[in-house]
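Handout, section 3.2

Students often ask what a structure token actually looks like in practice. Rather than define it abstractly, here is a full record for histidine kinase. The first block is the sequence as you would receive it.
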Amino acid sequence: MSGPSPTPAHEPTRQRVLRAARQALHIVVVELGTPTEPGTPLFGSVQKPWLRRLPYLVAFGFAVSLLPTTITILSHDYGLGGGLAGALATAQTAPLLLAVTRPLQAWWVIFTADIVCALALTGADGVAGRAWPWPPMVIVGYLALMVALSLRERSRTLVAVWLTTGVAGILFEPRTPDRSDGTWVLLFVLTGVVLMMGATLRERGDAQRKLIEQETISEAERARRTLLEERTRIARELHDVVAHHMSVITVQADSAPYRLSGLPREAEEEFGSIAATARESLAEMRRLLGVLRSEETERHGGPEKAPQPGIGMLPKLVEGTVRAGVPVELSLPEDGVPLEPAVDLSAYRIVQEALANVVRHAPGARTRVSVTTAADGSRLTVLVVNSAPPAPSAPSAPLETTGTGHGLIGMRERVRLVDGSLDTGPLPDGGFRVAAQLPLSPPPAAAASLSPKDSGSV
């Protein structure tokens, strides 16, 4: 006579429990069958060669030491046959070498061998009074395997391995031989501790690597942003130069009919069209300037709207540097040298950046600034040399920093703008040297070096 059928109230609960059990079993099977980065060696991404070889050496050491020990204990202490003991010992220890690159696959082999070994020891003569189902050498090899697993696999996989180890021990508990010491609880606890510690170390290492990668990316982005800011600054300054020339064109075109008598009507209309086009271009340039100028400069009415400086203003710059506590000697060409606006501005900014670096990094160092022209009149040489700084001392007055950029980055961009060359570097006596060669007549295409093609977007 069959028992009472389950009531409708209990049926949904039983179904939910069975469904949850099936889902949990499915997750365990999936996790145990899906290794992470199979074939990739442990510590394979580290740069030090000895660290990359360390997992192989450790695995080899465990394998060669546990193999003969396991054979001896299984055959002499537990009374297993020599052939069976050798086969089981090999299956339990040799896969440790595989654990360096495929720890989850190695676990499958070793765990299966441990189960077979426990079953074989059930009927062995020497098992009474000894550890069972996991002999001591099995525990040592299994914990070594757990270290490799914890350094590679996901947390869910580690939990699945840990639970599977515990379930196997629970299933063996009713079959424990008389007077044998049950070791499944010991292995279960030690496995959990090793897996937790290894996973913690792995997650900490991953977090440190991600932090280093993020810092590297941030540093690269910071350098790129600095470069773009400097190029934008140069573009703003060149805009002022171009706007001045456009204003001159407008005035000349408007005044041509009054300055030149006897012009045909068509010529007057042509000059009028040129003046109108120049005014429209100038208006567009002013709108562009509004985009290029920084918000802070527009709000406070900064000095960017002042005329752009040139080498004629270097004496004033040197005077401000001397007030800042840096003795500077200035040498300029005796006869005025006509310079293109871009070259004149670049020469001034290079000297300004170099003196600012002296004030910041070598306060009080004697500095020599010279601006010379080549004998053939083809280039302008800007040289700034400072000696080693004396004892540290605070500058007595701030250096003029109006319009300065980003040190050597700004110098390189200004030299590249006019198709020149820059040579910088420390001196044997502890000083520093900045030497720039600027062509007196830069090629018209030099300004194209600031195009978005080379710099991203400006």
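Discussion prompt for tutorial groups: The longest strand covers residues 379-386. How would you have guessed this from the sequence alone?
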